[in-house]
Specification:
The protein has 3 helices and no strands. By secondary structure, the chain is mainly α. It has a domain of 34 residues. The longest helix is centred in the C-terminal third of the chain and has 13 residues.
């Protein structure tokens, strides 16, 4: 994705900051960060649990809700 932007095959890419940081360590100044007032989109995450681990799921749900 990053190489497509740096070579002109793409105008923009969306990526998490950690991936961009790793790319920029080897390619300093290759990308420009766009400053925007709020996230364009927030993506949910999912976790796989074994069947029957309802109590564990409820504990995780509760902890995340409180965050």
């Amino acid at each position: 994705m990053f190489v497509n932007v740096t070579t002109g095959k793409a105008d923009v890419t969306l990526a998490e900051p950690g991936a961009v940081t790793l790319f920029l360590k080897k390619n300093p100044g290759a990308l420009k960060k766009l400053e925007i007032p709020q996230p364009l989109r927030v993506f949910p995450n999912g976790y796989a649990l074994k069947r029957g681990e309802d109590e564990f799921k409820f504990m995780i749900d509760s902890a995340l809700w409180n965050l």
